[in-house]
Amino acid sequence: MAKVIWITGASSGFGMAVALQLLKQRKHVVCVSARRAHLLEMLVRKGAHAYPLDITETADIGKVQEAIEADHGPIDAVLVNAGFGVYGPIEEVPEEAVRRQFEVNVFGAVETVRSVLPSMRREKRGRIVLTSSSAAHVSSAGMGYYAATKHSIKAIGTALRQEVGELGIDVVMVEPGVVKTAFGQVALEENYMAPKVPDYQNQMDDLKTFMLRAFERAPEVDHTRDIMIKALIEEHVKPVYRTTRGSLALGFMSRLFPARMYDAIVKQAIGRLH
Ligand SMILES: NC(=O)c1ccc[n+]([C@@H]2O[C@H](COP(=O)([O-])OP(=O)(O)OC[C@H]3O[C@@H](n4cnc5c(N)ncnc54)[C@H](OP(=O)(O)O)[C@@H]3O)[C@@H](O)[C@H]2O)c1
């Protein structure tokens, strides 16, 4: 039977790549959400069903879930993927930008999850795939708020896995490192908070140079996309997938090194590129 799959953040990057690949399989009902409805049109032409949604309008999330289920039946799997990064020093990122970072990456994700749980519990089956990040394990200067949102996703996803595992619902966290999507441009241009306090200037310059190079050299979406699809549709899945070498290494480093040594290694790695 065709699975009904809902993907948030489908107008770009991982979400769009997963939707396109699933549509090629012609086996599933693919429902796609994002703010920029016009970017979903290409997916609709290929057979997707579009449900435009600004994930910060949390009251709308349940309406989209209800509309999908009214149109296609119970949602079998959801890719909770909409997200972005704000880069800037802890002291300087304006409160409004911090709130927005959490509204999209955490509250939006949580409400998406909560919207699908009643019907998944009723059906005694379901798959919740959370797009997490290597930043769920590590944090560094200039990326503290983004990392905080992904640490939150890890904590919430871990609790959820324990709460709903025995109800027939699988929770899977996918943790990419840096991958070529629009994420870099959104974080390093649109949401980059250039420091006004001179004390932070060098660190932020270092971070920007480091991240620009990292995105230039980053892998394409294919491998992470394939892992996300596996997490959405295969019968047996793992609770966590780290999809890039960077995310494997960072997770390992954060467990291996004491805090000050970890700080020194990260600072040296970021500064070395100058
Ligand atoms: N690329 C990486 O290096 C990387 C690494 C680790 C984790 N991630 C995570 O991967 C996920 C997807 O990002 P991506 O790399 O594919 O970046 P992307 O190409 O920029 O895509 C981000 C998606 O999120 C959606 N989104 C952002 N704000 C939204 C809002 N308020 N309401 C609804 N949708 C919203 C965007 O759609 P609209 O703007 O049209 O709304 C877009 O479809 C994010 O959770 C990100 O944190 C990315």
Could you characterize what this model shows?
- Residues 3-182 form the Ketoreductase domain.
- This is SDR family NAD(P)-dependent oxidoreductase.
- Helix 1 (13-25) links the parallel strand 1 (4-8) and strand 2.
- This protein has a 7-stranded parallel β-sheet, sandwiched between helices.
- It has 274 residues and is α/β, with parallel strands linked by helices.
- Helix content is 53%, strand content 12%.
- It has one domain (4-271): NAD(P)-binding Rossmann-like Domain (Rossmann fold).
- It has helices at residues 13-25, 41-45, 58-72, 95-123, 144-164, 183-190, 201-217, 222-233, 245-256, 259-271; strands at 4-8, 29-33, 49-50, 77-80, 126-131, 169-175, 240-242.
- Helix 4 (95-123) runs parallel beside helix 5.
- NADP nicotinamide-adenine-dinucleotide phosphate is lined by residues 9-15, 34-36, 39, 53-56, 81-84, 104, 131, 133, 176, 178-179, 181-183, 186.
